[in-house]
């Protein structure tokens, strides 16, 4: 992929914003699945902090996400500047506070949108098998009893160009992500008020339109 597509991938994951692109085979064995409850629908609030080298205070934003497994993801920033990113079946749409919509150019089109959607779905569900297609997956010390932690080192060259590593923590659901950029910045995400549904309904599908 081009440099522009790689930059878009980094920007969306760090906003953050997750088909499938070719990636090198992973030879490391994948450990057993983590105790994350599978669900067709996941909703959660998020607080994001981006820490930049040379700046004492992080850039903070907050909002809510909706993940409909296998169909799409809605990432809505509510403060300080409202915006919405929607990934749905190979389409990536960016919507501002006034509802005006734009889409990336052709070189950052369906293939990249599918990659972003699948990566975020894997990250938000701690799907080790899916994550192992793009990362070397290692267990890390758990933050507390009953919880777990992973460290992901990119094996995919596209991701390795943007990130040094990604840390994931959780218990019944993913609770925290920490993304370390190659250029030294770091993004920390904390999820709260997580709700799941076993089946997606009309309301969830309409939210992706």
Could you describe the 3D structure shown?
With 209 residues, the chain is an alpha+beta fold. Strand 2 and strand 3 form a beta hairpin. The longest helix has 16 residues. The radius of gyration is 16 Å and the shape is globular. The N terminus is likely disordered.
* Total helical elements: 5
* Strand arrangement in the largest pleated sheet: 6-5-4-3-2-1-11-10-9-8-7
What is the residue-averaged pLDDT?
A: 80
**Helical coverage, percent range:** 10-25%
| Strand segment tally | 11
Calculate the terminal CA-CA distance, rounded to whole Å. Answer: 27 Å
Alpha-beta classification? alpha+beta
Rg over C-alpha atoms, rounded to the nearest angstrom: 16 Å
Oligomer classification: single chain
> What is the ordering of alpha helices and beta strands?
HEEEEEEHHEEHEEEH
Mind describing the biggest β-sheet?
A: 11 strands, antiparallel
Query: Given the C-alpha coordinates, what overall shape results?
Result: globular
Q: Uncertain segments of ≥5 residues (pLDDT<50)?
A: 1-8, 15-33
């Amino acid at each position: 992929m081009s440099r522009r597509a790689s930059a878009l991938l980094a920007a969306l994951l760090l906003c953050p914003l997750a088909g499938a692109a070719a990636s090198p085979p992973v030879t490391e064995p994948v450990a057993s699945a983590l105790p994350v409850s599978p669900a067709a629908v996941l909703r959660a609030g998020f607080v994001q902090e981006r820490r930049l080298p040379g700046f004492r205070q992080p850039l903070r934003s907050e909002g809510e996400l909706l993940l409909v497994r296998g169909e799409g993801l809605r990432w809505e920033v509510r403060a300080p500047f409202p915006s919405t990113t929607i990934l749905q079946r190979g389409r990536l749409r960016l919507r501002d506070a006034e509802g005006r919509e734009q889409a990336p150019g052709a070189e950052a089109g369906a293939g990249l949108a599918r990659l972003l959607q699948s990566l975020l779905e894997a990250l938000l569900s701690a799907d080790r098998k899916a994550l192992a297609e793009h990362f070397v997956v290692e267990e890390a010390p758990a933050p507390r009893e009953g919880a777990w932690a992973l460290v992901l080192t990119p094996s995919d060259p596209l991701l390795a160009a943007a990130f040094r590593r990604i840390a994931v923590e959780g218990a019944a659901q993913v609770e925290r992500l920490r993304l370390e950029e190659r250029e030294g910045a770091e993004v920390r995400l904390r999820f709260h008020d997580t709700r799941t549904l076993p089946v997606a309904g009309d309301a969830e599908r309409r939210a992706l339109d």
